């Protein structure tokens, strides 16, 4: 058997592997197939080949696996609007997410005993995103926004994005009408010319929207500014309008300079009776209803909170820290992005929370200093995808801190850090996968470590 790129072969999918792709074999040769589910009999087109495995895209579903959703007309990543788990029914999404967490805990974390319970499902399976960033492009001469097509890097548009909040979708629709009317030029990556780069919309539970137009310029001209102001008259829910200047050759969407053109500087969100301020650059969890569940889970893992001094490491706008501060003796929230720290300080003041201190800086440096200076009882970590620096973990291991709660959006770095902690005096006591991102293969996991 010698497969070539472009060949079409029929295989049966055996399982879903970490990362969310299906795996099947053709003459004992492993083939990974995005958007496939176990039991699927599919015809696939080979798109890449390595020595020991290849990858193929579905061209025909010959017979669907039991866990596939009913609509068989959808086959590709693009058909599913870039949602790489949307071909699975929701119960099965939760099951495979649990299995993936267990897999990395065993293989990377080298922990064979901890029981991994079923993933905690999200109340909203669709339209849960409160933040949207979409690139601009052209289709048939018309300005569109959407996603990058996996194969061509062209942008494709969807009618109603299934993950975005309904208000977010509405704002983008209206904005496109205005931009097309004025015929504003879309940014061309290759030539580094044109104006419109990305649109970002943040929405909240009060049905308000913050609009951030990201442009390839150092200045906004009158025509574009007037157009953005017209948007707020068209969509009454818009309460804040920013322009973000990004002249860099980069795929980071937001620029460094974010200028408020109209309305409120921040939009608010309420969690645990605390009103949080969110500005364009601040990290804020995107599925708010499920965030409340996630935070409750994490916070309830502490033996007790009263009288404890707790560090909220990778604190963002201080969400977890402030909820903890309602009960704890004292909380320190460490965060690297200064606007997020500023949002946190503002929120604490407005909510009259006085027993929280914000530290703007790198966890790797600030945590080391803090544990030397203060008697810290417990830490809650919520790092970005790359996890926690090994040096930080080793520094913690030198202290007598008894409890660590670790919230992670990347189970494989969680598992890597788990091994380091377990080799250095901590034991994983429990773990819970949480679905923050239905229809995608992303998984959040919360674990509690205790010193042994
Ligand atoms: C997953 S978010 C969690 C934020 C917050 N706990 C929440 O739930 O909203 C990770 C945060 O860590 C921050 N961050 C990333 N690297 C950091 C570092 N080395 N030191 C401090 N903060 C960092 C990011 O800016 C981001 O706000």
TrEMBL record:
GO terms for molecular function: rRNA (uridine-C5-)-methyltransferase activity. Pfam families: TRAM, tRNA_U5-meth_tr. The active site is at residue 409. Residues 2-60 form the TRAM domain. Transmembrane segments: none annotated. The keyword Lyase does not apply. GO terms for biological process: rRNA base methylation. S-adenosyl-L-methionine binds at residues 285, 314, 335, 382. Coiled coil: none annotated. PROSITE patterns: SAM_MT_RNA_M5U (PS51687), TRAM (PS50926), TRMA_1 (PS01230), TRMA_2 (PS01231). Keywords: Methyltransferase, S-adenosyl-L-methionine, Transferase. Belongs to the class I-like SAM-binding methyltransferase superfamily. RNA M5U methyltransferase family. This is 23S rRNA (Uracil1939-C5)-methyltransferase. It comes from Cetobacterium ceti.
